[in-house]
Amino acid sequence: MLFVYNLLICVLGVILLPVLLVVLSRAKYRGRTLERLGLPLGKGQHAFAEAVKGTANRPVIWIHALSVGEVTSAVPLVKALRADMADTVIVLTVATSSGKKIAETLLQPYVQRILSSPFDLRFAVRRYITAFQPDIFIQVETDFWSNWLSLLQKQGVPTMLVNGRISEKSFAAYRRFAFFFQPMFCSFDLLSMQTEEDCRKITMLGVPADKVIALGNLKYDMERPAETEKKFVLSQLAEQGRFIWVCGSTHPGEEKYIFSAVAQLLARQDQ
User: The pTM is what?
Assistant: First the structure.
């Protein structure tokens, strides 16, 4: 199955080659694209050189997060690892540019390097593995790729899924294409899921039960701000006796609906 998957990637690569050349011609995207290809060129060369600098004889943990949500989930894990394993090198890869920016804001002091993740191309993933020489690979929540996991397994690198979750929609898709997803899930040495229901689903997909454990949601382990800090923030946001409405995890375009709802509520309050 992996052979067919990579064959399809090659075919798509030929078809999309003109698009790739256009992307590489633009300075805005060139550095990140080369980095994700694992090529020792331009910005990618410096990023890889810095990533492996000083890692000799020190354990290396490679953590991967897809985007903003997964990076946020990884915060308590990374902080705990840094506190308990001060001499360990932690390298974080992130798939999206927005997620990488959040990672640089929240986790820069706790990791050695933050890089864009490789495309799921065998030569690109192999370059990352060679550069990092990880002692363990930790994937946060989702973003499963066949070549990543197969090459890590081939190199004997233990792999772990943390904060795993499976929605009903994803579960249906995983079951429909079990021939593709089951080998990936089974390649993990340990799968830490958010709930017992997630554990049930992953075992129904063929993962041995002794590899699966429910440890809750990492986001609940986030540090809460001190009481004095909360009071200060609230005092800056509103006067005493005023309501504060916080809308979190919004997506582009949703603000207009929020503002419309606020306007309607304010109109009712004035009546």
Answer: 0.77
